TrEMBL record, chains A, B, C, D:
<dbReference type="Pfam" id="PF02800">
    <property type="entry name" value="Gp_dh_C"/>
</dbReference>
<dbReference type="GO" id="GO:0008839">
    <property type="term" value="F:4-hydroxy-tetrahydrodipicolinate reductase"/>
</dbReference>
<dbReference type="InterPro" id="IPR036291">
    <property type="entry name" value="NAD(P)-bd_dom_sf"/>
</dbReference>
<feature type="binding site">
    <location>
        <position position="304"/>
    </location>
    <ligand>
        <name>NAD(+)</name>
    </ligand>
</feature>
<feature type="binding site">
    <location>
        <position position="36"/>
    </location>
    <ligand>
        <name>NAD(+)</name>
    </ligand>
</feature>
<keyword id="KW-0520">NAD</keyword>
<keyword id="KW-0560">Oxidoreductase</keyword>
<dbReference type="GO" id="GO:0006096">
    <property type="term" value="P:glycolytic process"/>
</dbReference>
<protein>
    <submittedName>
        <fullName>Glyceraldehyde-3-phosphate dehydrogenase</fullName>
    </submittedName>
</protein>
<dbReference type="GO" id="GO:0016620">
    <property type="term" value="F:oxidoreductase activity, acting on the aldehyde or oxo group of donors, NAD or NADP as acceptor"/>
</dbReference>
<keyword id="KW-0521">NADP</keyword>
<dbReference type="GO" id="GO:0005737">
    <property type="term" value="C:cytoplasm"/>
</dbReference>
<dbReference type="Pfam" id="PF01113">
    <property type="entry name" value="DapB_N"/>
</dbReference>
<keyword id="KW-0547">Nucleotide-binding</keyword>
<dbReference type="GO" id="GO:0050661">
    <property type="term" value="F:NADP binding"/>
</dbReference>
<feature type="active site" description="Nucleophile">
    <location>
        <position position="143"/>
    </location>
</feature>
<feature type="domain" description="Glyceraldehyde 3-phosphate dehydrogenase NAD(P) binding">
    <location>
        <begin position="5"/>
        <end position="143"/>
    </location>
</feature>
Amino acid sequence: MDQTIRVGVNGYGVIGKRVADAVTAQQDMELVGVSDVISDYRLTTAVCRGIPVYASTTEGAAAMRSAGITLAGELHQLLDAVDVIVDCTPAKIGASNLEHYRAHGVKAIFQGGEKHALTGHSFVAHANYATALGRDTTRVVSCNTTATVRTLTALKDAGLLAKARGVLIRRATDPWESDHSGIMNTVVPEAAIPSHQGPDAQTVVPDLDVVTMAAKGSHTQNHLHYWTVELTRPAAQEEILDALEAMPRIALVRRADGIVALNSTIELMRDLGRPRGDMYEVAVWADILTVHGTELFYTYTVDNQAVVIPENIDAIRALTGTVRDGAESIRRTDAALGVRAEFLTPAQRPVGAQTTAHAFEGPRS
Amino acid sequence: MDQTIRVGVNGYGVIGKRVADAVTAQQDMELVGVSDVISDYRLTTAVCRGIPVYASTTEGAAAMRSAGITLAGELHQLLDAVDVIVDCTPAKIGASNLEHYRAHGVKAIFQGGEKHALTGHSFVAHANYATALGRDTTRVVSCNTTATVRTLTALKDAGLLAKARGVLIRRATDPWESDHSGIMNTVVPEAAIPSHQGPDAQTVVPDLDVVTMAAKGSHTQNHLHYWTVELTRPAAQEEILDALEAMPRIALVRRADGIVALNSTIELMRDLGRPRGDMYEVAVWADILTVHGTELFYTYTVDNQAVVIPENIDAIRALTGTVRDGAESIRRTDAALGVRAEFLTPAQRPVGAQTTAHAFEGPRS
Amino acid sequence: MDQTIRVGVNGYGVIGKRVADAVTAQQDMELVGVSDVISDYRLTTAVCRGIPVYASTTEGAAAMRSAGITLAGELHQLLDAVDVIVDCTPAKIGASNLEHYRAHGVKAIFQGGEKHALTGHSFVAHANYATALGRDTTRVVSCNTTATVRTLTALKDAGLLAKARGVLIRRATDPWESDHSGIMNTVVPEAAIPSHQGPDAQTVVPDLDVVTMAAKGSHTQNHLHYWTVELTRPAAQEEILDALEAMPRIALVRRADGIVALNSTIELMRDLGRPRGDMYEVAVWADILTVHGTELFYTYTVDNQAVVIPENIDAIRALTGTVRDGAESIRRTDAALGVRAEFLTPAQRPVGAQTTAHAFEGPRS
Amino acid sequence: MDQTIRVGVNGYGVIGKRVADAVTAQQDMELVGVSDVISDYRLTTAVCRGIPVYASTTEGAAAMRSAGITLAGELHQLLDAVDVIVDCTPAKIGASNLEHYRAHGVKAIFQGGEKHALTGHSFVAHANYATALGRDTTRVVSCNTTATVRTLTALKDAGLLAKARGVLIRRATDPWESDHSGIMNTVVPEAAIPSHQGPDAQTVVPDLDVVTMAAKGSHTQNHLHYWTVELTRPAAQEEILDALEAMPRIALVRRADGIVALNSTIELMRDLGRPRGDMYEVAVWADILTVHGTELFYTYTVDNQAVVIPENIDAIRALTGTVRDGAESIRRTDAALGVRAEFLTPAQRPVGAQTTAHAFEGPRS
């Protein structure tokens, strides 16, 4: 049994609270505590659940105490007690924390809201665990970028990927938000093409030929991605599905099993008893995926709240170097979180839809 | 230790799957199996979780088997093996099942989608557990009616209720539905005043002076109720809160704790680790509740998927008569499900908002 | 023919642009120009439509000119050319403009986002036109308060109103907003009871016994109000409908005519060819309205973008005193805008729903 | 002045009522009447506006008369009085009407809900007006297909189009629908790839190399399309914009003008005074459109209620042959409807976004 890694989480929001729970679920890690500045039900609940709560600022400490929150101390004390701090503070704020972490000699993991330049290393476990070994810092890329890297790397590893063009339909805000952060009855395209996710994926896998376009939809949970991929050679649907299944944290779903929309997967996670209803996997529709010659078309859904959680866990092991083999870290993380390769059994592979053949009779002259 | 009650669930949908899990959580009950006719992920997941699955019809059995679902048998076999069947089939269908249940000599519990006349008894545990003792059938009233009866009975028991007038803002469809069952960017008032919930509450507590008006809003989870109550005498806010807290399955929440909307309670349930994120309690806003003379105004939110679950569990004990005391059954059910009287601690009671005093200077002449 | 009133509009947003169009539609008014600080399509379109556009600030002027917007001048020049300025700037900003208006000796009308104290007079044409005659300033109350005053005054004028308790389901943001101003898949109750609309209605009709509770729903257009009214005496549904029809700017709708939700009225306005699809009337459901003894229950929908527009037009005449009789001003305004007393013909009055009688069998002993 | 074409509209819904208004706006057409079976506000309003209303069925006639709707007759009488009938009945129903139309010797136009095989000719004015000349029937393709054909044909006519891959984010239901036809807080991908729009576009322009993928979003109006196009040669952004502007019924919009989302264009149409707020043009974002080498990326929004209206008008002229030149028919239609080539002036063409250059540094080795 290897040494226990002492972990702290700074920022107990949508990502932070999930990272905290995931750390607790690992046999080789200990959650020393979480730190924040808010004093409402989110932190009160953490205290009730026995999680040591620290204050990220002195002002925060006063407000939290007056709200009846028992504090284990302030952030600097948490930093003195941990090997790794996972920064889950709001976008851009993390950057200002780096010096603080360095001063305490703790290794730090940042989230996708920060720029690649902050750490000089962007992380997706399967893609580049090895290059993060022993580093002082890394950045776990955003939910959209993580999903993009997972499926494109699966195709790349199989020698099938030439270039990929994606359209990302993002959720507008998080389910708990009620203070005017949403959009209503509209779709909002991003200001520029390409959207940031394509270039962001290249910070993890530099030689990806990828371009993304993105828009925000009027829903609060999960993203939907559509990809048009140029393959290096013609391939059968079966071969593509094999390549995707071979990749950790990608799970196939089927319309034939009743999984027909984003909210189907949300209900499925609840039925599976997942904590908070989280889906760590990228759920690819096996019976919508279509290959035509050297062109591949597919779509999947991504749980924006959960997909980066296992990556954060692996990043902790990579920075500390307690596990040298990325595959082994992924195996441990996924076993602890119950990550699956396929959501429904029996895994009856769909035959390429008949309609497809017809649809691709192609241009008529 | 009393005998174990053998329970079956017919209809494994939003309510049925929750009743099944709640039965499993009771020490004095055994879930013999669930029955349905669908063959998608919802039943596949039940099988994966080790729940014996039966087919409600012979046609259903064929479809389910061909979908790879291992069946424990058909409904009639389930009925031969249980003491009580909880009918969670879609509204109006339950009625056609009653004879089938009678023929097998099993006691039956129906849901709020059925009419009171079907069983002649409508059930809310605290209000009329005793009158259900030993009966062959009862009907657990709908989520909106259950919540209505809980808070009004709390006031009635305290001798405070003269009459109540409510406006119910209902969710439009369930979170998992994706097949054109929703409404979009609108509010739809019910066709008539009063809406059915008021008269329905009188099937449980006949002498309630209650009138309800209802509309469907453009959201998928939880209802919001507003009540204007005429009290029998002037009362302090503190006295009202005491009366509500004295009632099982009512839990106070506070805006001051960050619980400011329907989706705040949904996030809170996830943070509390509730299975499926369920809230069995009626969540009353303690710091919005206002009393002015003999008028009481308050609002609360109701989890339409979960609020009736503990009532179904109590109904099982009442029909079988294994527990004669309603309070004892409620105690057991709530302990097994982790039902709470208050969601956040410390329970700092809000002082009646200053603005209120001013606002109620009342008419100016 | 009376003199032409020279009118300016400061703030060309949701309300401002509608007031501008309505002023143009009046024979006794001239739209001298509109003023704002934004430089996007909203102002570009005004220029294209031939409306003189002024800049409310010098900085705004620079930005607008660089955006290619031809300016007629700056706000102070508009103020020098008008008799009345209608302030439609965002809430709270209007207050800071008052001195500017006074300095130019122009009469000023503010909107419901400002406090009553700013002008000392709050306006709803039918209720208190006379008291605004010749004043330098007044405030047209908010959309919710305007609708509240209209229907309650109708009952009051008929000698039927004892007290009124209302629940207001508000739209969350305006249809054009796309910049994170909305709420999603939730309902947000207001922080306190009573909500401001009740006390606000008393600034127009001081002796109203009214209390309101309000929540924001997940939709972008129109409010829905539910009222529980204590009558001074028993009255027939027919008598109530007569009282409502006798009041200007209240129009009856019927579910029987297919008007079943908020978005039905929006479609109806488009079918009627209303500019921008605006509904100036409060649309009361005649066949949902129910009377039981001395209790009246009814619901209506309010176009939050349009309902205050005719009130602003009347306020212009009242301040200038060109029309002494409120009824005459209302007649002119409504004729110019095509306001109706009933939306659908033939006006078959519904018979009190049979279900109602039954529903009100009332408490069972 | 050419002869007046006598036109009837069968099916007075979202499309039918717009076609009726557009026919009335043409100098060379006469709206003889509209026919339907419903008897609610939609038809009552048509009567109020002076449109002759016919009953599509005898049962419908009875219901309509009893609802107080004055009928001009039944469908067969309307068919005896027109040269062309525009069938706007719900999808699939039109097919059953064809024989009825033939029996009366009237030319017939169907909508995109019908199959190409029904008429053997699918219509988009600019693309194939000539091949519809004198035909007995044609089918105006769906809103999504119409928009697809317009922009791809613009590129094809400029000799720039090699192949196109599109992702279509569709609205879920129409704004007026309130009867459980919507989806809520989700996105629903279509069952198969390609979605029908790509092959459907080939029924109009057979040699298009186009593939589409589609999903329904949680909004009620306008679609958003994203395209990845392989060009025949490198081209400047300016050249692409010229090609799009040269095509009728495509209008450029700019984020720089404040048009940032689907609901921005809806508000813009209202500001422009468009009847029902309709947008007949495909609104392409000029400052999001990006070219990189031989790849073109762009996005636009489509008013699903209005985009096919001008096509129906042209189809009427084509079938009757009164105007032999498609360009002349388009000119007349667009002049009558106020169709524009650009929505905002001055038309400052955006310079290719600097960020783009950087973003396309492309793969890093």
